[in-house]
Fold this sequence. Notes:
Layout: E1 2-7, E2 10-15, E3 18-24, H1 25-32, E4 36-41, E5 44-46, E6 49-51, H2 54-59, H3 77-81, H4 87-103, E7 106-111, H5 116-125, E8 128-131, E9 149-152, E10 158-163, E11 166-170
Parallel strand pairs: 1-4, 6-7, 7-8
Antiparallel strand pairs: 1-2, 2-3, 5-9, 9-10, 10-11
Helix pairs in contact: 4-5
Amino acid sequence: MLTLHRARADAVVIDGDRIAALGPYEDLRTAYGDRARLRDWDGTLTPGRHEPDAPALLEAAYWPDPREDLGSAPLTGEALAALGMTEVRWGASARRGLQRLLAAGTTSLAGPFTRPSVRTAVDRSGLRVSAGDALPDPRTLTVSGRADFAVYDDEGNCLVTCIAGRMVHRVR
């Protein structure tokens, strides 16, 4: 199934995990409109964010479960040391941290990740991982390229994040 994502005057057509077409919305609507499901966003279409600090955010910080009485900010330093972290807890923390990154429009991460449970969470997220601070190629949206993108509103809030053509975050 084709999906046509409209972001004001710009649009992208997704076929599976790939970009089938890019261009002005009116042109793509004419070419694909009767064959594609439409997603309409009031924002700017971008390749998404690259997070160079991902190892520190996911392996050196604990993202509390909302059911815990630990607040919502990630814990580091002495507060983290006092938690007695296990691999299971690291994995759950990484999944919550990844959810926050996806909600911010992140489409790629710097690596590497050394904790097995964090590495598993990152692998399952579908986010592309590059070595160190190197940006993955390409950092632009291209026809036949992987459909990783985000749409941001005028205040910089992420409206939608797509990884390999799947909407992994959207504002309701």
